[in-house]
Write a structure and sequence with these properties.
Layout (H helix, E strand, L loop, with lengths): L1 H25 L14 H8 L15 E11 L15 E11 L14 E8 L5 E7 L9 H12 L6 H8 L3 H10 L11 E2 L4 E4 L5 E10 L8 H6 L4 H12 L2 E9 L19 E13 L20 E3 L4 H18 L8 H6 L1
Antiparallel strand pairs: 1-2, 1-9, 2-3, 3-4, 5-7, 6-7, 6-10, 7-8, 8-9
Helix pairs in contact: 1-3, 1-5, 2-8, 3-4
C-alpha cells in the first residue's frame, strides 16, 4: 500500500535516531507529574526542548499549528450519559487548533509523524470543555515516569544501548513504534482521526458514572501518501491544504464516544479497549473559519484537558493531571516571553 511505503521510508530513521521525536509527538498526552521520585512538570518540559533550546514565545511542544473557529453540533444522543450541557442538543462555539508534534514552529510538515487536534467548546452555562488529542491509536507507554524515561533514553547519545534497554523495560512501546513506522501518512489534517487516548468519566443526572474515551472521525476520505509524494510536499502543505478546504466549505468530524465495560483498563492509555465496546455518536465538529496564529484566539489559549464541565470528570488515568501541570509550565514560560511572541503586521506597527 502507498501508506506502508511512506511509513517504511521513515522506519529506519525512527528506529535509529528519531524515536525521541515520535515520543515528543506523543507528549500531547503526558507531561509533568509530581511523583515520589520527584518527577516534576519543570523537568519534563525542560527535557522536551530541542538541542538548540526552546523557541521563545512558542508552545514547548506542538509549536507549529493552525488556529480555527467553528461549532460543535451536539445531537443529544449522549445527554443520558452526562449532564454536561455540551451533550444536550444544540450548537456550541469552538476555538481549536490543528498542530504538529514538534517544538519547532518552522519545522517541515513531513518531518512530524504525529498530528494533533485541540479544542475548547463553550456552553451557555459558562462552562468549557477542553481537549487535546492526537492521531495515534494508543499512547507509547503506560505511566508518566515511563514517558520521562523514554525522553531520557532518546536524548542519551553517549549510550548506544539506552533505547534498547528502555524498550526491554517497557515492551508496550513496541506497539507505538509499530504504528509510527507502518501507519499510512495522509495528505491533510482533515483526513485524520483524532483520539483522546486518556479515559474520563461521564456522570448523568442520576449520579450514574461511565468510563469513556472519545475520537473525532473525519468526514473526508483518507488519501494515503507514498514516500515520494510525501517527500515532494512543501514545508507547510498541511496549513495550505486546510486553509483551501475550509475556504471552500466547512470541514466536519463526528464525535464518537467509546464506553468501557467493567474491567477495561482506564488508567493505562497504552492499552486499547476491544472493538466491540458500545459506541455513541454524540455530535459533529464543524470547522468554519481559519484564524491567524499571531494574535489570534489560540495564541493565549491553554488546552488543559482537566478543564471539564460538571458531568465530565477525570478518571484514575494519571495523564490528564500530568499534562495539565506541564501545560501550565509551558504557558507561563511562553507568556513571559511576550517580546518574542509572533505578531500580525498590524500589531507590529503599534509596537
Amino acid at each position: 500500500m502507498a501508506g506502508r511505503s511512506a511509513s517504511s521510508h521513515l522506519g529506519s530513521w525512527l528506529l535509529i535516531g528519531g524515536v525521541v521525536v515520535v515520543a515528543v509527538g506523543a507528549f500531547a498526552y503526558t507531561a509533568g507529574w509530581l511523583t515520589p521520585a520527584r518527577l516534576t512538570p519543570t523537568k519534563l518540559v525542560d527535557t522536551l526542548a530541542p538541542p538548540t533550546g526552546a523557541v521563545p514565545g512558542f508552545r514547548r511542544n506542538h509549536a507549529k499549528g493552525i488556529c480555527f473557529t467553528g461549532t460543535f453540533e451536539s445531537n443529544g444522543a449522549a445527554a443520558g450519559l452526562s449532564r454536561a450541557q455540551l451533550f444536550a442538543a444544540g450548537a456550541y462555539p469552538v476555538v481549536g487548533r490543528f498542530n504538529l508534534a514538534t517544538p519547532d514552529p518552522v519545522a517541515a510538515d513531513p518531518s512530524a509523524r504525529v498530528r494533533g487536534l485541540s479544542l475548547r467548546v463553550a456552553t451557555p452555562d459558562g462552562r468549557e470543555w477542553r481537549s487535546a488529542m492526537i492521531d495515534a491509536p494508543f499512547f507509547p507507554v503506560a505511566t508518566p515516569q515511563a514517558f520521562y524515561a523514554l525522553l531520557q533514553a532518546g536524548a542519551n547519545k553517549s549510550d548506544p544501548a539506552a533505547m534498547k534497554n528502555f524498550i526491554a523495560a517497557h515492551p508496550e512501546f513496541k506497539n507505538f513504534l509499530g504504528w509510527a513506522t507502518t501507519a499510512p501518512w495522509t495528505s491533510s489534517y482533515v483526513q485524520e482521526r483524532y483520539n483522546s487516548l486518556n479515559s474520563f468519566i461521564l456522570e448523568n443526572d442520576k449520579g450514574e458514572r461511565q468510563a469513556v474515551r472519545w475520537s473525532f472521525l473525519p468526514a473526508a476520505p483518507v488519501q494515503p501518501l507514498s514516500a515520494d509524494e510525501l517527500k515532494a510536499k512543501g514545508a507547510d502543505f498541511l496549513a495550505s491544504d486546510l486553509t483551501q478546504r475550509v475556504g471552500a466549505a466547512p470541514q466536519r468530524w463526528t464525535l464518537q464516544l467509546t464506553l468501557a465495560n467493567a474491567g477495561d483498563p482506564t488508567a493505562d492509555p497504552s492499552q486499547v479497549w476491544p472493538d466491540d465496546r458500545r459506541k455513541v455518536t454524540a455530535g459533529t465538529l464543524v470547522v468554519q473559519a481559519i484564524q491567524p496564529e499571531p494574535d489570534g484566539p489560540c495564541r493565549d489559549l491553554n488546552f488543559d484537558p482537566t478543564v471539564l464541565p460538571p458531568g465530565l470528570q477525570v478518571s484514575d488515568d494519571p495523564f490528564p493531571a500530568a499534562r495539565s501541570a506541564a501545560y501550565s509550565v509551558s504557558f507561563n514560560r511562553r507568556t513571559a516571553e511576550a517580546d518574542a511572541y509572533p505578531h500580525t503586521a498590524a500589531q507590529e506597527a503599534k509596537r
